[in-house]
Write a structure and sequence with these properties.
heterodimer, A: 333 residues, alpha/beta, D-Maltodextrin-Binding Protein, domain 2, 10-stranded mixed sheet, 14 helices, globular, B: 542 residues, mainly alpha, MetI-like fold, 2 domains, two-stranded parallel ribbon, 21 helices
Chain lengths: 333, 542
Amino acid sequence: MSAKRSIVAASLALTAFTGLAQAKELVVYSSRQEHLIQPAFELYTKNTGVDIKFITDREGPLMARLRAEGANTPADIFMTVDAGNLWQAEQQELFQPMESKVIEENIPAQYRAESGQWTGLSLRARTIAYSTERVDPKELSTYEALADDSWKGRMCLRTSKKVYNQSLVATMLESIGAEKTSDVIKGWVANLAAPVFSDDTALLKAIDAGQCDVGIVNTYYFGRLSKEEPGVKVALFWPNQDDRGVHVNISGAGVTKHADQPEEAVKLIEWLTTEEAQRVFVDINMEFPANDSIEPSKEVAAWGDFKADTINVEVAGRRQPEAIMLMDRLGWN
Amino acid sequence: MPHRSIPRMPRWRLIAYVSAALVMMPLLVLLLSWQSIDTSIWGHLLQTQMVRLISNTLVLVLGVGVGVIVLGVSLAWLTSLCEFPGRRFFDWALMLPFAIPAYVLAFVSVGLFDFSGPFQSLLRDWFGNDFRLFFSIRSTSGVVLVLTLVFYPYVYMLARGAFLAQGKGLMEASRVLGHTPWQGFWRVAIPMARPAIGAGAALAIMETLADFGAVSVFNYDTFTTAIYKTWYGFFSLQSATQLASLLLLFVFMALFLERRAQGSRRFPGVDRPRQGALYHLKGYRGWLATGFCLTVLALAFFIPVAQLIYWLVHSGIHDLDSRYWGIIRNTLMLGAMAAAITVTFATLIALARRLQPIRRVRSAVAMANLGYALPGSVLAVGIMFAFSFLDNTVVIPLSAALGVENPSPLLLGSVFALLLAYLIRFMAVAHGPIDTSLARIRPSLPEAAQSLGQTGWGVFWRVYLPLLLPGALSAALLVFVDVLKEMPATLLMRPFGWDTLAVRIYGLTTEGDWQRASLPALTLVLAGLLPVIVLIRRTGRR
């Protein structure tokens, strides 16, 4: 009993202490990984003196935590990858609107929530990777064309459990309709050369090793692999250049509904859209800047210019369950 | 057998009920999810997924169950009863794979043996580009093999303890009665070791059911991966927790089988454990045994560690900054604190079951061991909801009433909450060894102590506790290593600044950056090695 009482007392003392120490400190819940966010945060702290504390985890548990904590959450900002996740956080009413001219000026409208509750901070293109040994880029044209019989036994895919594939299929559902999308996925699955992979890097290595000839990956995985193994016999192709363009997804952030310091939080997010921050936040993972007035880094620019799909990325969230059910039915595990 | 001579102590009952309540708290939160059902998700799951998920899960559980029993028992038999070249080394070295997290072995194995890995690339260099291996690591047999290699130490350790405790005379008596060694093994040693083997296999099976990291590397869909897919993909935490509560059915099945395997008989151990070898394996048979042990050890330990070291050297040391020592310290401290708390509770409930073997206490103890089979994140979510409920309804109003400005949640995000999560999750791990050593205490012993005038607590302090210490130490070491490896609950519940090695590994590996994770992974293995060695050398045959 006395032990319990002293725990309560100590805890209360602790509350009082944290209450005092709250000045100029932002708390971020992030499913973007620590080594990708920390350098930018450190720079911000150096510039402004505002300390940033953060917890990283998968987006599902973090959203559950935000919801459970409700009004008492210590978090000011929720940061995650994939538009579907951001949209979902908005649906669960975890964000509050940011009214910011800076963000509206820096980030194109298709990479922001219409409600202003979240914004993209970096862009990742999900495109076709092919073997430079066994594929002539002239054979390639669109995502849909990979469903063709000529790719039988030559295609590799990552698991449908990964949100990147769910968003790709969700935007396809919106752009070309359920029937066509279903045919395309059937074709892809029929063309598989190996069971689906659990990550993009393994997929790229399989293309390099000759297990398959083409696959669909996020560009930064290719960037990372070709940096580690410069001789890798894989290249990137930009599909659908004559119609909707390459599928582009975002990583992004919003201010939590119950943030203690919403103004300070907006300031941090605004700063993340500026050139100084984008150079650190985006380039560290070889992504594309979400601020369209900024050029991508040299190594990323070397992959060539492309036309990106301008569909609003919110679609990825809205149609995600539909996309998963479709992939499940058609045997894309 | 109830010990009627021991005065009834209601305290024991209370302890059992409280422990059961603790574990049941997050489980009840899961059951509350059944208040409403999302018919579109369930319709989809039932129509397209359920049959495959259940059959996949059953195949995995059966495969790993049979695998760990065959491997664990045969290795334990060799090192505890036979003599062959290298036996003294293998005796403890065969426990080393316990220090390797399942997700690490899974990734290393797939990386090495898949099509694009160095092994098959080498074969293609030798035999031409069209060479294809008959065996694919990314298959059902691959995932069964890897999980067997990771989880067999549970069976090995407990079976070895049982074989050693059977004493010198037993197998000799069986030999005198005309049994061949083989007959003695099947008719005497195995039946007597059944409770230990069953306990080890149950732990392995529960780990298998809860595993998410390793099966994801293989993209092998189980009930657990479906839980996460429903949660992260459909964003339906409710349907996910409903699935998780169904997973408990599998657990009940495993526990039921364990009880059946244990049978009704109990075999108290002998006072003097075996000292010398019983069978000297000579010539090729000895070397065969050596080869067998070496193969297992190489696949489960040396090869993965060599790969981690290679990555470390090849890709350089990343992230080795001053914070790294803090991370190691956090990991070790959490492990030690969790081990102490969990073993205390496990000892108390094991004693409660022994001293008050009424039905309700036995069920309470069984319930207190359920946490182990739940996927860590799901369990953590249950605990989180329970805690934030307490925070929002008790702690914060209370601190506001006491005049605290900006009251904030205390339980959620506290070390206390994290330790409680570990307690709930690893109770079963500690329960195994403690219960086994308790079973070896002959009922006559406490009875004798009582006839000499010792009362309830006296019997506890002077008889049970000293005899339970070895089992409690084993339990503490097991929990310690398991906490080091634990990832999902730590991720969700750690306080700010309490990153552990497993958290660091998670951060680097979610995006497939395994080479960079080699440093924390190796550190984790090293940190787990010492307890593992202590665990096994303490009980070795001289």
